[in-house]
Fold each of these.
Amino acid sequence: MAGESTAQPGGPLAGLTAGSRVAGYLLEKLVGVGGMAAVYRARDERLGRVVALKLLAGDEVVRKRFVREARAVAAVDHPHIIPVYEAGEAEGVLFIAMRFVAGDDLRVVVSREGALRPRRAAAFISPVASALDAAHDAGLVHRDVKPANMLVDVGPGRPEHVYLSDFGVARGVMSSSGLTRAGQFLGTPDYAAPEQISGQDVDGRADQYALACVAYTLLSGAVLFRREVPMAVLYAHLSVPPPRLTATRPELPDAVNQVLARALAKEPDDRYDSCGAFADALREALGLEPYDPSRPARASAMPPSRNAATAPLTIPPDSPPTKLLPASPSPPSMASLPSPPAMAGSGSPSRPAAAGTWTAVVAADRAYYDSVQAVSDTDAASIAFPAFVPERRYRLSGAEVRIGRRSVSRHIEPEIDLTGPPTDTGVSRLHAVLTAGPDQSWSVVDAGSGNGIVVNGKDVPPGQVVPLRDGDRIHLGAWTVITIIRD
């Protein structure tokens, strides 16, 4: 807020200049202007303190947004959210009096300094993540997280202190998207989550996506998707994999790419559980100490996702070849685990399968498919038995064989591809893994899928390793049965 704006407010605010008074505040200098709002450094003549006075004028929609912003900020008490001193209306002008921040916003910092050192970038991301989580706990989504809304307070003898500001677009969790009734996008294209752009309901994970865009900007000195027109930027957020940060900052660990790829996943379910979890993972990937040492230590920089569709590390076509790994953690090898007991109802005690050649026979199981109950007539109409799916045989070899749905956009290439009818996918992108044992036996484990797996008619709990024998049948999704055969 330190720099003076060269633009001047228009409309009903045009008559306000330095020296004007609004509701007991003496305007000293214009520090920001945009649309129907202007921000002045002003002096509270009653208390003698300097404040940032945000002035707004407009129609009923603007007034509702003003009320929403004032209430949103007042509802969340956090050391990294700009505190509001007063809000009201005077002579037809809406005003919000807030703490005045002497420094610049992060947009100015990056434009002046370029890419920031990892420690300094993380020192901005972690506090903002904490502030966002506090807002989400209060039932609010910021919806416009960007460097320009992160203000850096500076002063002699004390470290930089970042504040999250401008809750003017904030709404309740799971509210409608950033589109107004007229279809006008509310937010900033460079930092907008795919679900916000496409008009879906949003929650705190949209703010996490935007925060990951900010992290990329702070560490690279550039926006995530640089395009000539805003619509091209919005399209990129919807469908283009994020670039690798190490293409710009090769000295940074590759783990940073993985952390950003997860927080920038196109599907909200594939992101971290909170903004704080993302910020912690980023610090760990950068080799920095935890933001809050009292919090439990993280097991890894890439914690398991809530489902198997977690976006893996995405590589643009012009990047050098890189070995791709699935985002969901691989199950432990059989050599590192004690022999598990036989699954209840399997018909015989646990025993290692005999050595030999093993084959997975994939087929469409009509009986099992017909047993699925649709929850509505609409769902029933969309389900059709995939009679066109031929029987396929996969010779098992190597240490493990992944089972799932191929995804070109997510760079997922399972060895056993179970891509089914478009209206009835049924199988997660990484659904299960067949693992070879040291005695040439094979086992299966659910990789954290949404639908789970069934072996010989019994549900298998996530993470449980099940030894396989000749003739065992594995069901995945609604239509697929895999029969394990030993030749």
Note: Residues 169-185, 299-354 have pLDDT under 50 and may be disordered.
Amino acid sequence: MNRNRMLIGLAIAIVVALFLSTFVYRAFQSASAIKPVTTEHIVVAAQPLQVGTRVDASNLRLIPWPSGEPVAGMFTRISDCANRAVITPLAENEPILESKLAATQSGAGLPATIPEGMRGLSVAVNDVVGVAGFVIPGTMVDVLVTGRLADSGHGGEQNITRTILENVKVLAAGQKIEQDREGKPQNVPVVTLLVTPDDAARLTMASTEGKIQLSLRNTVDTRLLMPASVLQDSLFSGGAPALKRPTAAKYVPPPPSPYVVEVITGNKRENKSFPNP
């Protein structure tokens, strides 16, 4: 009896061993059947690159990339994208794409980042206007201007603040040297904004005749709200001022048409008018 049990146990062990060995053999076969991944080279930034930087062999390099996973606009040779300027900041090892480079023969530096039909306009700012240094290339801002309203209808001149530009891209932020009142050179913060030619004229007038302020906004918030202007009276009088509205002219109906009567005297005929009451 015990011998039969031992034989049965041995048979079960042999069957299990055969099953496991078959499973392992098939797993190894499947692993060996996997084809190796073929790769090609893709051009990436060898170091962080700022807007306007001209790319060449000194700041680019090649890394392996799966051949079956192409990226739209990628480059496989450094020579294909050399001597072109970067129009967006790039991190180290970030792929160089066609959409991130300025057009061929457009040069390098800030001018290469300005799209056709647009303008780059620099305005002097201070730490407050520049939103405490948070206005950096790539951020989006609104431009507000404060100036004097000559005739507001509320007893003379008063200040007014209005938003003249919304969702404007910052191209650059830097310094320029100007002379102070004593003729001494001083560093003045400057912000360069990407604007249309019409907006460039408005921004120039605002920075010359008034005081501008930049309002930092979320880069994904592209809504144009066109906020209402703010008058000085509305801040210090406890409410919005009562604007004087032009008095509408009183309507006067035209007089009624007179009666016309034909009068015959002998051989003479004539029309006579009589007032219509």
Note: The first strand starts at residue 39 and ends at 45.
